[in-house]
Amino acid sequence: MAYDASDLPDVSGLTVGIIGGTGDQGRGLAYRFARAGQRVLIGSRSAERAAQSAEEIAALPGVPAGGVTGADNDEVARRSDVVIVAVPWDGHAATVGALAEPLAGKIVIDCVNPLGFDKQGPYALPVPEGSAVQQAAALLPDSRVCAAFNHVSAPLLADPEIDRIDLDVLICTEERELVGIVGALAARIPGMRGIYAGRLRNAHQIEAFTANLIAINRRYKAHAGIRVTDV
């Protein structure tokens, strides 16, 4: 079955919360979704930091008035329909585990990549559960968990001069319905497609491939992403 954006559901009314919304990846995604007209909530351990980031994003070109606000992680989890986890790997388990109750029944998109860095460059870290998203799924048994947005360049997301970001968002999930919902969110950003890439057990190589992309970007001074052919 070929990719067909016309089959995607309407997600324009969903509120998107971003846990880790004060970091580069979280801020970039918040900006793009807010710019597309999505209602966005920025989450942080500090409500003050979240509010400050929300004000800065709201001041960027193309963001409608009232399109993005900030609050602490617990409040964002409770008020959102879809929650994107974009926290540093070293705080992933603690942050996600603490939000199990407010995230119950919610769609949770994990875009965290467990990476280490040394003199030879980036490399994938082992995860006992198999991947960051599998760790999230284990910590959130009552949530609908998937992996997506792992390979999106934060500088591209944050650049208001860039209108299109031509890449594919690889989606791993146990629920086929989530492919359409997450794919529709990806399609809110011009140039993006959401592509089903298998069950959660297939997410570890997607997360790990980010190390290769970082190496590519450093070598070629680029902001490389993924585009799947023949789909």
From TrEMBL:
Keywords: Oxidoreductase. Residues 15-114 form the Pyrroline-5-carboxylate reductase catalytic N-terminal domain. It comes from the Bacteria. InterPro entries: NAD(P)-bd_dom_sf, NpdG, P5C_Rdtase_cat_N, STEAP_metalloreductase. PANTHER family: DUDULIN-RELATED, F420-DEPENDENT NADP REDUCTASE. This is NADPH-dependent F420 reductase.
